[in-house]
Amino acid sequence: MRFRLTPRETSFYDMFAASADNIVTGSKLLMELLGAEPSARAEIAERMRAAEHAGDDATHAIFHQLNSSFITPFDREDIYNLASSLDDIMDFMEEAVDLVVLYNVEELPKGVEQQIEVLARAAELTAEAMPNLRTMANLTEYWIEVNRLENQADQIHRKLLATLFNGKYDAIEVLKLKQIVDVLEEAADAFEHVANTVETIAVKES
Questions:
Q1: Are 55 and 90 in contact (CB under 8 A)?
Q2: pTM score
Q3: Domains (ranges, CATH) in the chain?
């Protein structure tokens, strides 16, 4: 860590941690969706929408702090990218839940639970990592593991697509389910974007 002569705005660390904790909330709602009866999904979607709005508020708070701070803990562009990528994760998770409800999906294809389990693990790792931005300590294992999880998510996604196109589902159902599994894959990609941004910050600060 290089020595600095000027004080740094430290509230960013708390805001990133709050944003990541909110993502954990979203991942738990995804897990809850898996075991819910179709009639209970609308209520889960409402809670996910509230979590997504909380995520938006957290992102806007970071941007406001960024625009009003003369000194920042690390590069402004990296702060913006990290906040945006965290926000993207919540957006994708909320979209997936909303699509399940809007499309009146009776049963999700086998393999979606594996997608969501990967997202839940990535959410936990991200929430654990954000406080470490203060010291840049113990972050290497985080981004390595999130990248491994994203590779796992890619494999799960490909298997899901193969399942959807095996002739078991009618064309309309394929379109509905494919959009849902694609959005969940985008959430996994967004976790990797967060990890890559953290790695970039750590390298610059070392």
A1: yes
A2: 0.92
A3: 8-203 (1.20.58.220)
